[in-house]
Amino acid sequence: MEIGPLVRQRLLSVQPENNLLDTARKMYERNVGAAIIQTDEGHPGIITERDVLRAVSEGADLASTTVGVYMTTTPVCATTTWDVVEAAKTMRRGGFRHLIVLDDGIPIGMLSIRDLVDALLEDYERSLLP
Amino acid sequence: MSTVEEHMNQSVTTARPDQTLEEGAQLMVERKVGATVILTQGVVVGIVSERDVMKAVARGMVPWNTKLEDLMTRDPVCASPSMDVHEAIGIMLDHGFRHLPVVDNGKLVGIVSARHLLRAAEEPAATRAEAQ
After folding, report:
1. Chain B residue at shortest CA distance from A50
2. What is the CATH number of the domain that holds B27?
3. Which residues pair with A76 in a beta bridge?
């Protein structure tokens, strides 16, 4: 099973100079756990709810702390033809929960562990049926 | 059929309802977990996940002035150690939860996450893919 159908194609995009409070609000309003950051270098960056948690744990003032401080600049990316098991293992071993999905090097969507878990668990459930 | 006990993590991150959001976030980062179970005198009274932290921050709650009891999900659905994994997966899928505290005779004995169950689900999916 390829990850293509599981990829959410409506990406939330933010800028490195945006503050974490506004970014957290946007992520919450859009019900997503990560946002993409397009940089001049070409490779997209990522900011996730885990990064927001880290900022909170460090006592950061979210209104004056920028995305650039907590973002990951070179995240692991996938393509739509990746197998779901390959994606799951990549996330589990890497300890992250979101994969930016590229097509020809252009970000076209995001795969979250939530969507992957749902798909794999539903598949697992079906496999248990007589 | 495997049980929740076989997949749960017996080391559970816990906090008190009166601890702050900042303290809860510190615990979750230090322990590298996605949720902390809130206990009062050993009894599960709530759970706080990363998503709850995001929600609190988005609503303008100040991390060092907000108590975990103000953002926790109260009386969370719990699993028992002998519960079939099948049933635990069903609860997670139906409710959209990623974590279930595991309680035995009223006592917290573990936590099972979607990530734990993902490992269980990876194997049959990989086996079927190879067979095709």
Report:
1. B50
2. 3.10.580.10
3. none
